[in-house]
Amino acid sequence: MKSYVIIGLSSFGRYLAQFLSDRNFYVIAIDSDESRVQEAKPYIAKGLVGNIKDSQTLEKLGVNKADGVIVSLGEKVDDSMLIVYYLKKLGVKNIYVKVFSEEHAEVVGLLEVGKSIFPERESAFRLAQRIDNPNIIDYIPLTEGYSIVDWVPSEGFVGKSIGELNLKNKYDIQVVSVEETVPDRIKLIPRANHVIKASDVLVVVGRNEDLDRLKNMDK
Q1: Are residues 69 and 110 in the same domain?
Q2: Among residues 6, 60, 104, 208, which one has the fewest Cβ atoms lying within 10 Å of its Cβ?
Q3: Domain that holds residue 94
């Protein structure tokens, strides 16, 4: 079982603990506020109330043995960077930092610690994509300029095979899986002869500008 440590149990940290726990991760969390630790208790395997800016506390917590650490301290940039410094000294390889500004993200980048997380910006981006294209039920950024999308095929695609649609050659979009609801199963790397049903959800990956064209493909 993979283990992750969450440092800072704001609403973001608490929701993250819940979602990781739902996916059978071993979640360890620390916050200086006892009430926050208590609120997150149903979702964490181990919770600690303590000084999150103390390197010895972090070491006792076993952060160096975890698969990754998420630092979620909101606008407390100084505290966030101090903790990141300690995590690097303790040998933590996978560090994720919740940032609130481009400047904060630049500092994280200079330390070369891993991935900066803009939860508000990413949530707004995903919501905008869903508003713009109601057939998209989830939109996850991958690397710069690329995303992966859970897409409900519109009427013009139903009854056609993946090979017939030729999405890869025509639009440079790759279908990586099909989530069927009738029957309930997932096809990874589906064959070209898979005929799309109205109940299917296609998981596709591609450049953002190509994915944006999904809403106009059957017009």
Answers
A1: yes
A2: 60
A3: 3-117
